[in-house]
Amino acid sequence: MNSDLNVALKAARKGVETIKSYRNKKLNTREKGFHDLVTDADIATEKEILSVIREHCPDDSILAEETLATHSLTDNRTWIVDPIDGTTNFAHDFPIYCVSVALWEHRQPKTAVVIEVNRNEEFTAEAGLGAFLNGKAIQVSATDNPRDAFIATGFPYNDLSLIDSYLKLFRLFMDELQGIRRPGAATYDLCCVAAGRFDGFFEYSLQPWDVAAASLIIKEAGGAVTNWMGEDNWLFGERLVAGNNRIHQHLLKRIIEYIPPEFRQNVDIAS
């Protein structure tokens, strides 16, 4: 492991410790947006993660969900942090939520760590060096027939503009795929694609901290990640489709068929 991965692991593990310290406490919860929860645990966890990053990398930039959110990226080394992906799950004691820490440089992902708190699953990747789960190499599935495909998605909660088209697409996938799940944490969904548990994934209304780490893990596991136009500009685009190469192409084809062009475009391409 290089020093960047060590820093990412140290920061993410510190985040996990903080989350666990809030499990038996009464949470202070508020809506920062439509159906978009934030708790005092999110704020405290982000503070601890950032303290580790700043200690070791004081000159690096930071993009973090709760305190340093932005929709732009430079060539500088930038840490992209989601303290709790799956806050609604966490607030309701539903056991799927993650810490996500990524380092980007020259507008490309370099280092990634995602930890699913309850199962203590540590997904890691470094650009060009492969993807790992608890230290063991992982790769995307070999499923090539859509009828055998098991995929994940996320139900839109703060942007209902695509809901009618989305439901038509969802209905189609229910008919032609083996199964669909919605765990409620996009970061974890994507890591499960990397580990070969899911064959594919699609969602919209995603934010950069939802995908910055896990998408590198998928790529290093041999998978594909694009926006809904099949392009590489997905970090700030809010629309993402991923999977092994065959299932990714099938999902992308159906999205292009069922989602009107104006809704397939990236929302923000500031990256």
UniProtKB/TrEMBL annotation:
Reactions listed under catalytic activity: a myo-inositol phosphate + H2O = myo-inositol + phosphate
Molecular function (Gene Ontology), one example: metal ion binding
Domain of life: Bacteria
Signal peptide positions (record): none
Keyword Magnesium: yes
Cofactor dependency: Mg(2+)
Coiled coil: none
Keyword Membrane among UniProt keywords: no
EC number of the protein: 3.1.3.25
Keywords assigned by UniProt, alphabetized: Hydrolase, Magnesium, Metal-binding
One GO biological process term: phosphatidylinositol phosphate biosynthetic process
Binding site for Mg(2+): E65, D82, I84, D85, D210
Top EC class of this enzyme: hydrolase
Family: Belongs to the inositol monophosphatase superfamily.
PANTHER family, A to Z: INOSITOL MONOPHOSPHATASE (PTHR20854), INOSITOL-1-MONOPHOSPHATASE-RELATED (PTHR20854:SF4)
Protein name, as recorded: Inositol-1-monophosphatase
Protein source organism: Rhodohalobacter mucosus
